[in-house]
Amino acid sequence: LATMLHRDPAAWGERPEEFDPDRFTPAAVRARPPHVFKPFGTGARACIGRQFALHEATLVLGLLLRRYDLHADPGYRLRVAERLTLMPDGLTLRLTRRSPAV
Ligand code: HEM
What is the pTM of this model? Predict the structure, then answer.
């Protein structure tokens, strides 16, 4: 259900499959109904780790991106692996240290 909701052109525009971080600018988030993005599920059985996960992701990304630039193979084409969560199959990132080193 969430997979369909997260790809609904009525909510996400003409190319819902396209990776576009600008979909999550504060203005873009405010401009759409609140219930069209449910990465943590919904209702009584929704994720109880949501706040922890969001804090952890913010911390880890902040620490990593402060020190490293991340490079993906530009030729990589998305293959979605469905396990407990959806993830990009075979995607690897190369890290280079940002300068000046911090
Ligand atoms: C980005 C990270 C995470 C995502 C995207 C995520 C997503 C989800 C989703 C979609 C569900 C299922 C909701 C349903 O069945 O409708 C769920 C359930 C659950 N999650 Fe998470 N989760 C994340 C991190 C975590 C963390 C860090 C914890 C614990 C510290 C956690 C604990 C749980 C538990 C216990 C349930 C079952 C709740 C229940 O059935 O009552 N999750 N999560």
Answer: 0.84
